[in-house]
Specification:
With 155 residues, the protein is an alpha+beta fold. Helices cover 21% and strands 29% of the residues. The chain is built from 2 helices and 6 strands. The protein has helices at residues 2-15, 122-140; strands at 38-45, 51-57, 62-68, 77-85, 91-99, 102-106. The chain has a 6-stranded antiparallel beta sheet, with no helix packed on it. It is extended. 0% of the residues are buried.
Length: 155
Amino acid sequence: MKFVIIAALAAVALAAPQYSYDAPAARSSADSSEEVAILRDDRVHEDDGKYNFDFESENGIRFSEAGSPDGDEDAIVSAGQYSYTAPDGTEVVVKYVANENGFQPQSDLLPVAPEFPHPIPQFVLDQIAFAAEEDARRARGDSREAPSRSYGAPQ
């Protein structure tokens, strides 16, 4: 029995994934060990929970953010922006707000949902409004108007 347990433990140990902690390969022609100077790194943390920071490196990365515990249950509400140059040379600028509604980025480079393909016809909007009125009447308990049981039949 001891042999089976030892053999099972050895099998588990040999089957365990082998992790490598080598530095990832560089994605550009630049040497991955190249150092980038920090041009600015200003940080302010106040006693009341407010903070702001500005960061800029010599390779063009900029990041700034300000925040305070103004949200529900002192949740941090923050706003800021970051920018960098994409590999194709495009300047990327992202402005954002993070609050009770989540992270809300804005940038000309972010995808945008397509517009609705056509306007909604008025008869459809009228039907939606009529259904909402019926639902409201039912919620109030106003049952003077029962739904028709003979839909489509002459009255």
